């Protein structure tokens, strides 16, 4: 039995445009210099308050970061509606999830820096609710790369971390997997480079979602 734990943003769905526009409007509201798209992509995967602090060059969260986080959350659904943006699946993701969801030797979960509400919205939009049996979000655990998201998913499903596989596009996903004692698969279609993923502990790189299937054989 294996436990496949998928990151969401940058791994299952292409949400960078939505995240960046919401971040841009948040920084504008607080009189901050508009972030570059590259700056936003670099923090995707972190919990939101930590991400906002990092984008301003601070290692620790301060009060204004908390206020900006609250404003970002209040804007997210509005921006999503403004842009008519539904966080599309990357090509091949649906087919890959469909292929592995019926297997009796495999459980599927999500480990994400999204809020629980944001993850639920993605799951409902794409009809993945029935496939994912466990999830941990920024509302439940410390930010990646802390291993809690992985270890708590393992505990809930009765799995050992050595039988868990974390699939993600960010260096934080790779670091989290290694900290938990799990296997790490980096995906090349997301927001970090392949070299960055390998340098941060990726055991393998998938260049297309169908390449993930071989790791569950």
Task: Give descriptors for this structure.
217 residues, alpha/beta, Rossmann fold, 2 domains, six-stranded parallel sheet, 44% helix
Compact overview of the structure:
With 217 residues, the chain is of the alpha/beta class. It contains nine helices and six strands, in the order E-H-H-H-H-H-E-H-E-H-E-H-E-H-E.
What does this structure look like?
With 217 residues, this protein is of the alpha/beta class. The protein folds into 2 domains: 2-14 and 87-215, Rossmann fold (3-Layer(aba) Sandwich), CATH 3.40.50.1000; 15-83. Helix content is 44%, strand content 12%. It contains 9 helices and 6 strands. The chain has helices spanning 16-29, 37-43, 48-55, 63-82, 93-101, 116-126, 148-157, 171-180, 194-199; strands spanning 2-6, 106-111, 134-136, 164-168, 183-187, 204-206. A 6-stranded parallel β-sheet has the order 3-2-1-4-5-6. Helix 8 links the parallel strand 4 (164-168) and strand 5. The radius of gyration is 16 Å and the shape is globular. The model has no long low-confidence stretch (mean pLDDT 95). This is Phosphoglycolate phosphatase. Pfam families: HAD_2 (PF13419).
